[in-house]
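Incident log, support desk, overnight shift.

02:14 A customer reports that sequence design results differ from what the structure should imply. Their input is reproduced verbatim below. On-call engineer (initials T.W.) acknowledged and began investigating.
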């Protein structure tokens, strides 16, 4: 019988599961019959996620991983932990999972460097580690599953530059609000975005890294930028994800700036961000169909649990000697919401089109 357990350390309990309906995706290879990990003899698998301020982890990654694991290995036990953006806490959670008998660790690291110690501890006990979504800085990983993160930044930068040109803006200053400096993905997002922006007519006037991916800190940073540049001193905002985009937009509103006049990027297709896009407050998000990513991680974890080699359906490339599977991200503006996010069941029309957004949904063809 499939069993879930949640590790809660100290006085801090892990966040509760918020289930969200998720549909199919063209990139989903984890449903194919006969592929690695499609059956399990039972055992303990630990899923260690980094934080909950970014809503995707509790609404998408965790439930989709759990659902797939239960489907393909009903005799597996899942040990789940969320580190609340605390690298030391995540190390404690990993050690607790190993003590509890975890035979595979699936880790989305808070800190890519310090999480290498988790891999080292696991290796001492012959426990394989899957680096999920963010790449841990270790050569001893069994698998790295993520998206093409440099491409995410390129999509964001290209969308921002193209939108400004569509608006007839030929030059001007930008504000860049990047992700957490401890997140290896954030560096790739930034690099990808700069590869486009630095070759455009637009100049980055203020740039910030956002500790913990905190929307509140992003709001503070945007307030600093507005104070330095003035309300009319910038033409666009690169925000690395939807949480930081929300913080930047809140700062603009508080300063009396209409966010519909300043393109703002995002990432993760959070529900609030999709609604902001419909309302014209946020220009775009990068949609990553998390369902196939989470399901493939569960499939790989079961294969490793069973002592199987990871097949070509799981390992498709290599990252510095680490077996890798990268999915492709998609840029989404208001015109693509219906054909991507809603069509895949990532969010349903009912979830998106609340009373405040009903007219905007009708206009965008979402029903």
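02:41 Re-run completed on a clean worker. Output:
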């Amino acid at each position: 019988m499939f069993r879930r357990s949640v590790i809660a350390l100290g006085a801090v309990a892990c966040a509760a599961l918020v289930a969200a309906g998720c549909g199919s995706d063209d990139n989903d290879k984890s449903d194919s019959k006969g592929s690695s990990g499609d059956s399990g003899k039972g055992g303990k698998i630990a899923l260690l996620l980094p934080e909950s301020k970014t809503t995707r982890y509790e609404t998408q990654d965790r439930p989709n991983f759990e659902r797939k694991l239960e489907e393909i290995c009903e005799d597996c036990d899942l040990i789940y932990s969320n580190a609340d953006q605390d690298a030391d806490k995540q190390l404690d959670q990993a050690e607790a999972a190993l003590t509890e008998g975890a035979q595979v660790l699936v880790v989305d690291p808070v800190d890519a460097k310090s999480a290498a110690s988790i891999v080292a501890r696991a290796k001492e006990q012959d426990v394989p580690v899957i680096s999920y979504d963010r790449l841990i800085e270790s050569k001893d990983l069994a698998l790295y599953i993520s998206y093409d993160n440099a491409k995410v930044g390129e999509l964001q930068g290209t969308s921002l530059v193209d939108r400004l040109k569509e608006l007839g803006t030929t030059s001007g200053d930008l504000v860049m609000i990047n992700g957490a400096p401890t997140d290896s993905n954030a560096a790739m997002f930034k690099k990808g975005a700069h590869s486009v922006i630095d070759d455009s007519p637009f100049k980055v006037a203020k740039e910030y890294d956002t500790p913990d991916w905190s929307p509140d800190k992003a709001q503070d940073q945007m307030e600093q930028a507005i104070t330095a540049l003035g309300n009319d001193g910038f033409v666009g905002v690169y925000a690395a994800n939807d949480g930081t985009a929300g913080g930047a937009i809140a700062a603009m509103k508080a300063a009396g700036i209409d966010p519909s006049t300043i393109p703002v990027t995002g990432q993760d297709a959070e529900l609030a961000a999709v609604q902001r896009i419909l309302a014209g407050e946020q220009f775009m998000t990068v949609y990553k169909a998390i369902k196939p990513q989470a399901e493939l991680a569960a499939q790989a974890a079961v294969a490793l649990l069973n002592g199987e080699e990871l097949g070509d359906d799981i390992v498709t490339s290599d990252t510095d000697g680490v077996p890798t599977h990268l999915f492709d991200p998609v840029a989404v503006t208001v015109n693509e919401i219906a054909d991507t996010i809603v069509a895949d069941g990532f969010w349903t029309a009912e979830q998106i089109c609340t009373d405040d957004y009903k007219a905007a949904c009708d206009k965008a063809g979402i029903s």
